[in-house]
Every structure is written in structure tokens, then in C-alpha cells.
Automatic annotation (TrEMBL):
The keyword Cell division does not apply. Belongs to the small heat shock protein (HSP20) family. InterPro entries: A-crystallin/Hsp20_dom, ACD_IbpA/B, HSP20-like_chaperone. Gene3D superfamilies: 2.60.40.790. It comes from Xanthobacter tagetidis. It comes from the Bacteria. Pfam families: HSP20. This is Molecular chaperone. Residues 29-142 form the SHSP domain. Keywords: Stress response.
Length: 161
């Protein structure tokens, strides 16, 4: 696997240190996990949904945790409570334990999770505080305030009248 040196880009950018750190961390030698498969969808302007295929898992088998901008999904099949166990001739439905982590951007919160038809849907919403939202700044010229002062001051013709 190739490793890219991103250090020349650090000196040419401002404020992208976290992005490059994430890229550096993602280029490790270990292979990225592929189980369980998932989709990330944009459902609105500030709304997202992560859908994870968790066939065979129940709500009791799944755990969702959010800690320090990291969403962690865990699944572990509980042992069958019945004394009877069926003899499986072919196992095609994976029921192995998993742990999948997602890095969340700042101000992204987990709104809720739903398990339906073997799919776990985790809804996310980005709530940007008012102080962080972009705002419009008016540009004043040097003549602008003088024109306002001249209009508000009574004119010489008005004083003479």
C-alpha cells in the first residue's frame, strides 16, 4: 500500500490541520473494515442518515455510543437462550460481532436511531450556533458618514429662512 507524505501541504494551508490529520490517520497499513456494509445519505440541508445493514441483529444486540465527535456502532449476537439448538447446514447470514466508528464534524448531533427490516438507520443533524453562522458585514466608505452628517445638519438656506 502506498503512503503519501502530506507535509508540504501543511505549510500552504491555514485551518486544514484536522483534515490532513484525518487523512494521515486513514492511510494506515491496516485494512479498513468492510463489515457491516453501510450508506451515508444527505436527507436535508443540515440532516444526514447513516444506514447500516445488520441482518439478524435485534435491538438488544446493538449498541450506539457518541463520545467526543465519534459515533460508535457495536453489534454482538447474544447466545441463544433456548436449550434447543438447530443444526445449521450452511451459514450465509453473517452474525459476527462488529464495531464501526464514524468521525462526526463539529456541531453534528445524533437525532435518533431506528431498526427496521434488518437496517439500522441513525439520523444526524447539524446544529450550527448563531455565533458560528455566516453573517453579512456592511462596507462603509469614507464619504458615507459625511453624507449622512451633511443631510442631518440643517442647511444654510434653512437657517436663513
Amino acid at each position: 500500500m502506498r503512503t503519501y507524505d502530506l507535509s508540504p501541504l501543511y505549510r500552504n494551508t491555514v485551518g486544514f490541520d484536522r483534515l490532513f490529520s484525518l487523512l494521515d490517520g486513514g492511510s494506515g497499513v491496516e485494512a479498513a473494515p468492510t463489515y457491516p456494509p453501510y450508506n451515508i445519505e444527505r436527507t436535508g440541508e443540515n440532516a444526514y442518515r447513516i444506514t447500516v445493514a445488520v441482518a439478524g441483529f435485534t435491538e438488544a444486540d446493538l449498541d450506539i455510543e457518541v463520545k467526543e465527535n465519534t459515533l460508535t456502532l457495536r453489534g454482538e449476537k447474544k447466545a441463544e437462550q433456548n436449550g434447543e439448538s438447530a443444526q445449521v447446514l450452511y451459514r450465509g447470514i453473517a452474525a459476527r460481532s462488529f464495531e464501526r466508528r464514524f468521525q462526526l464534524a463539529d456541531h453534528v448531533e445524533v437525532k435518533g436511531a431506528v431498526l427496521a427490516n434488518g437496517l439500522l438507520h441513525v439520523d444526524l443533524v447539524r446544529n450550527i450556533p448563531e455565533a458560528k453562522k455566516p453573517r453579512h458585514i456592511a462596507i462603509n466608505t469614507a464619504e458615507g458618514p459625511k453624507a449622512i452628517e451633511a443631510e442631518s445638519a440643517p442647511s444654510e438656506a434653512a437657517k436663513a429662512a
